[in-house]
Amino acid sequence: MAHDHHEHRHGHGHGHGHLHGTDIDWNELGPLLESQAELFGPVYERAMAWLAQEVTDPGLIVDAGSGPGVVSCLFAEAFPGARVVAVDGTAPLLERARARAARQGVADRFGTVTGELPEALDELDYPADLLWASRSLHHLGDQRAALAAFAERLAPGGTLALLEGGLPSRFLPRDIGIGRPGLQARMDALEEEWFAGMRADLPGSVAEAEDWPALLTAAGLKHSRTRTFLLDLPAPVPDRARAYVTAHLSRLREGIGEALDADDRATLDRLLDPADPASVRVRPDLFVLGAYTVYTAVRPA
User: Dihedral angle at the C-alpha atoms of 209, 211, 217, 222, nearest 10 degrees?
Assistant: First the structure.
């Protein structure tokens, strides 16, 4: 799966967090995860409008790998007749999810389950009409088995929706006036190597061709659909987009920085130096452009 593997996933691992390793203060990271998810709100809202064409009146929506619940609460707003359950392995983030649901007035139909996927889904009181997994599946060693477990938690006629893949996001022109052109493409290649290692090191890891429609079919689901949604924030971007890019590049610096050559590392350091006029915190050519692909399929009635 090529692409922004840890950019803004809001499940266990939570975006960039897994570039740090496992010793992460999720309470401290929570506000950053929330602000990033809010930045991507237009993507999720368009995806939900697309899902609503198929999922007409869901009783239960499950956000599998929810993190701090930004997307879970968007589901509650988009489907006002549904109960929403946020499932995640990190209790402090689910506390934030419950607080958000209370602030947004949806707490009466919002619940949480703490536990690792897919086993935590066994705690659901009844089957889901829509199960949403946004970049949580690729953190599970046996993705085929996990998809089968997801499918088993669907009600007859229920929909499984995966956000996986897409395209690597871009934040800067190919030539940014410092260093060699093409820095982001070279970082993408190193991220691919990192991601392959992360997948190989997962407990029970199984190599799997990432043909998501075929894997959904193998899980016994039908009527697969695919749609890609753009996030297009042209320059000049708002401050929260600058904060997102800064956080993203900072975590790349920590995770793959030493694998960059000296020139690229120096360029990345300048981009992250708030005192440098080339910094992403101030440069006028900063933008955010990303493509996020959602795959759906339905449990036969």
Answer: 170
pLDDT digits (tens, 9 = 90+) for 47-63: 999 999 999 999 999 99
Query: Is 293:226 a contact under the CB 8 Å cutoff?
Result: yes
Q: Which residues on neighbouring strands pair with residue 298, listed in sequence order?
A: 159, 222
Q: Is 167 exposed, middle or buried (0-12, 13-18, 19+ CB in 10 A)?
A: middle
As given in the structure block, the two tokens for residue 277 are 């006029």
- Residue 4 in tokens: 């922004």
Long-range Cβ contact pairs of 259-264 (< 8 A, separation 24 or more): 259/190, 259/193, 260/186, 260/187, 260/190, 263/179, 263/180, 264/179, 264/180, 264/183, 264/186, 264/187
pLDDT of residue 24: 53
Distance, in Å, from the CA atom of 135 to the CA atom of 19, rounded to the nearest integer, reads 15
Pairing of strands 288-298, 167-170: antiparallel
Per residue in 89-142, pLDDT (tens digit) is 999 999 999 999 999 999 999 999 999 999 999 999 999 999 999 999 999 999
Written as one letter, the residue type at 174 is R
d(CA 232, CA 131): 26
What does the H/E/C string look like for 180-223?
A: CCCHHHHHHHHHHHHHHHHHHHCCCCCCCCCCHHHHHHHCCCEE
Interior/surface letters 134-156, b for 16+ CB within 10 angstroms, e for the rest? bbbbbbbebbeebbbbbbebbbe
* Mean of all residue pLDDT scores within the chain: 91
Q: Is 146 in contact with 117 (CB distance < 8 Å)?
A: yes
- Residue 256 corresponds to which tokens in the numbers above? 């793959």
Q: Which residue carries 């993190």 as its tokens? A: 67
Spatial CB neighbours of 91, under 8 Å, sequence gap ≥ 6: 114
Q: Which amino acid is at 251?
A: R
Q: How many CB atoms lie within 10 A of CB 225?
A: 17
